[in-house]
Amino acid sequence: NDNNDNNDDNDNNNDNHTGVLMRVTRVCVSVWQSFLQRKYRPLLLLLLTYKTGEMMGDVMFKPFLLDMGVEMSHVALLSGVMGTFVSACGSLIGGLFYGNLHGRDSLVIIGLVRLIPQLGRCVLAFVDIGESHKLLTATVGLEAFTGGAMTISVFSIMMAMTPHDDEGSATFYTGLTMVEVLGKTISSSLAGLLADTLGYKMFFIVAFVASVVPVVIATRIHEHSTSKQVERKEA
Predict the structure, then answer these.
(1) Are 135 and 120 contacting, i.e. CB atoms less than 8 angstroms apart?
(2) Is the predicted pLDDT of residue 81 greater than 50, yes or no?
(3) Per residue in 135-178, pLDDT tens?
């Protein structure tokens, strides 16, 4: 009898494991098929590219400043203390901004504003930084602000475009975050090589052009209504 009970327990465990494996497989296949749908292609391209220019610039901007003779303490103050605070403010404003606009409009507007500090980096590569402290401070501050705002907008539209009516919604969102991380990893990994090959001046120009690409892609994102907009329409 004990042997029969053990065999029954083993059979039940095997059935449970098989059921879980089948469910995981079904969810993964469903998410993959969703990713292949035309309506998600602009979103996936956006996730791969929206941080490309910014990450490239971020990785090499501190070494650039040090090579140009800016003191380490000043670089730490700008990029660390001020940058962190301003980025948090940008995230807050970005969330408020996103909540009152269509997702696509928010991405495009913030993306366009983000081009200003990327252009500022290009200018700094051509001028004497010792005589351009105001430009340097404004560039670092606006880059941190728009970077925080852009990140919030992108993750908000990721959540908005995640299907919430099926069992694979969590896996779908996780897949989107993996694509987002992949894009940032590739761009940051190539930054040093590109800077050594091109030099700082051409490198920051390339980073600026790379920041234009996601703005163009964002115009292809399907608009969706936020809760506030739905309330307005119903009113």
Answers:
(1) yes
(2) yes
(3) 999 999 999 999 999 999 899 889 888 887 666 788 888 889 99
In 3-state terms, what secondary structure has residue 76? Answer: helix
Quote the distance between the C-alpha of residue 96 and its chain's center: 18
R_g of the chain computed on alpha carbons:
23
The answer to pTM > 0.85 is no
Which single residue is written with the structure tokens 């940058």? Answer: 83
The Cα 153–Cα 226 span in angstroms is: 12
Q: What CA–CA distance (Å, rounded) separates 204 from 48? A: 19
Rounded Cα distance between 221 and 91, Å, is 21
Residue with tokens 């670089």: 75
Collect all residues with Cβ–Cβ distance below 8 Å to 112 and sequence separation of at least 6.
Answer: 215
Rounded Cα gap, residues 195 and 204, in angstroms: 8
Q: Is the pLDDT of residue 54 over 50?
A: yes
Q: Which of 141, 121, 133 is nearest to 195 (CA)?
A: 121
Is residue 117 within 8 Å of residue 58, measured between CB atoms?
A: no
Burial class (CB in 10 A: 0-12, 13-18, 19+), 188: middle
Segment 187-197, tens digit of pLDDT: 999 999 999 99
